[in-house]
């Protein structure tokens, strides 16, 4: 079988001009019959789909070419950040700008030789362990300064979910937030795990889209049509 | 009696169902979800792998004297750098699947979340016997491996080739039996009607 390489797309390349992440519930046959009845048949697990229109400047065009070439068309898989400025604004929050721009240093306040640290990934802590199929999570805010909002993305182990409701509850250890998520958890998450607020997912492209062609303006506006990869 | 689990209504406005197929081999039983992608873990913990490369032909039931047949096929492109899958399947030999069972299941679900946490086990709908593996190549790289299967009563689709004489009767009952020596050869019995 052909190996499917997973290519991580850095958040700095995701210069999206439109956001349309959606859940494909895989419904079939929702047509009205002659007697007025409608039956919907679902024969596959739901998945995330999206169209990612990008606006790339000259430097990012070159970087995007490298990503696209490494992914080898439909063979490879893209590990994409689900960029959603309405859900989470990474430029806001309580974390100093140096941390966001240069990355998080080691505990000794040193960074890597390139001057960059670990990527800045705001997260919340999962208080109680959750199993596949669960829709309710109890989360603890770790003080990154990004509010948990209805409609924002979260992810764990590259399985994205979206918050559909939030309730603040009080625990002996402090305030917690109970959220319900859509569609539901696809993986088991142990208690104490970090749920990323800057969500990522693993996607496959559905066609040959995404070629960063440019003209005299040296600006490229490719569009990537993706659907979530579930065989894992 | 319904084959559906309790509380599952096949006539509901929205029905969620998964097609599953289990292939029994000497290396164990393998579960697949033909035509869709994904990974499904059923209530017993068995993992069913989905692939859009796997397809199943029409499933037939034994009606009106037809012997139900069908096939399950995997179409793929052979990566020149990867091991030759066709050669690997051939190396397993003809008896790898012959005479073994292929079982078709439907998994009924009451909620989207049950795709990852099912409540009911899969419901068996069809049990067939695999006959042979055929391989076909189209162009330089496209390959198809298919398993053909037949119903359990395939030997009944033709006459039994036994006639009413002592020899065949003895073979049928498994012991020498002279009963048919006395079988009437003539059904035109003359009977005196008057005097």
Q: Strands, helices and their partners?
A:
The complex is a heterodimer of chains A (232) and B (195).
Chain A: E1 6-8, E2 22-24, E3 27-28, E4 40-42, E5 47-53, H1 58-71, E6 77-81, H2 97-102, E7 123-126, E8 136-141, E9 153-156, E10 159-171, E11 174-182, E12 194-196, E13 200-205, E14 223-228
Chain B: E1 14-25, E2 28-34, E3 38-41, E4 47-51, E5 54-56, E6 69-77, H1 85-91, E7 101-109, E8 123-138, E9 142-150, H2 166-173
Parallel strand pairs in B: 2-4
Antiparallel strand pairs in B: 1-2, 1-7, 3-4, 5-6, 6-9, 7-8, 8-9
Key features?
heterodimer, A: mainly beta, Phosphorylase Kinase, domain 1, 2 helices, 9% helix, B: mainly beta, 9-stranded mixed sheet, 9 strands, extended
Report on this structure.
The complex is a heterodimer of chains A (232) and B (195). Chain A has 232 residues and is mostly beta strands. Chain A has a domain at 1-24 and 44-82 and 199-232: Phosphorylase Kinase, domain 1 (2-Layer Sandwich). Chain A is built from two helices and 14 strands. In chain A, the strands form three sheets. In chain A, strands 1-6-13-14-5-2 form a six-stranded mixed sheet, with helices on one face. In chain A, strand 9 (153-156) and strand 10 (159-171) form a beta hairpin. Chain A starts with 5 loop residues before the first strand and ends with a strand. By secondary structure, chain B is mostly beta strands. Chain B has a nine-stranded mixed sheet with strand order 3-4-2-1-7-8-9-6-5, with no helix packed on it. The A-B interface holds A 1-3, 25, 27, 37-46, 131-135, 183-186, 229-232 and B 11-19, 36-41, 49-51, 76-77, 79, 82, 85, 112-117. Strand 4 of chain A pairs parallel with strand 1 (14-25) of chain B.
């Amino acid at each position: 079988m052909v190996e499917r390489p997973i290519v991580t797309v850095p958040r700095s390349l995701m210069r999206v001009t439109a956001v349309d992440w959606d859940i494909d519930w895989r419904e079939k046959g929702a047509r009205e019959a002659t007697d007025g009845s409608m039956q919907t048949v679902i024969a596959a697990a739901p998945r995330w789909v999206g169209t990612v229109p990008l606006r790339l400047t000259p430097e990012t065009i070159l970087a995007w070419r490298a990503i696209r070439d490494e992914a080898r068309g439909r063979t490879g898989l893209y590990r994409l950040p689900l960029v959603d400025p309405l859900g989470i604004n990474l430029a806001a929050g309580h974390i100093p700008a140096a941390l966001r721009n240069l990355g998080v240093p080691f505990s000794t306040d040193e960074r890597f030789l390139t001057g960059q640290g670990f990527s800045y990934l705001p997260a919340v802590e999962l208080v109680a362990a959750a199993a596949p199929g669960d829709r309710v999570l109890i989360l603890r805010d770790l003080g990154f300064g990004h509010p948990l909002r209805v409609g924002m993305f979260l992810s764990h182990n590259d399985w994205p979910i979206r918050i559909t409701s939030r309730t603040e509850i009080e625990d002996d250890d402090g305030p917690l937030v109970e959220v319900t998520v859509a569609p539901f958890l696809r993986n088991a998450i142990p208690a104490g795990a970090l749920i990323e607020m800057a969500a990522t997912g693993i996607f496959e492209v559905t066609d040959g889209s995404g070629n960063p062609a440019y003209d005299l303006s040296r600006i490229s506006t490719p569009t990537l049509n993706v659907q979530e990869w579930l065989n894992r | 009696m319904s084959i559906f689990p309790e509380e599952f209504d096949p006539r509901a406005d929205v029905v969620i169902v998964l097609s599953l197929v289990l292939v029994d081999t000497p290396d164990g039983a393998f579960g697949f979800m033909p035509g869709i992608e994904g990974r499904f873990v059923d209530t017993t913990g068995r993992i069913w792998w989905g692939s859009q490369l796997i397809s199943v032909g029409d499933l037939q039931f034994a009606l009106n004297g037809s012997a139900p047949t069908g096939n399950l096929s995997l179409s793929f492109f052979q990566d020149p750098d990867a091991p030759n899958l066709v050669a690997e399947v051939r190396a397993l030999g003809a008896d790898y699947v012959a005479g073994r069972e292929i079982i078709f299941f439907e998994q009924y679900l009451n909620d989207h979340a049950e795709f990852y946490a099912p409540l009911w086990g899969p419901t068996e709908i069809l049990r067939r016997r695999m006959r042979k593996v055929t391989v076909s190549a189209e162009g330089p790289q496209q390959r198809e491996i298919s398993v053909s299967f037949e119903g359990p009563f395939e030997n009944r689709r033709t006459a039994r080739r036994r006639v009413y004489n002592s020899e065949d009767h003895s073979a049928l009952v498994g012991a020498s039996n002279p009963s048919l020596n006395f079988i009437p050869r003539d059904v035109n019995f003359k009977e005196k009607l008057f005097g």
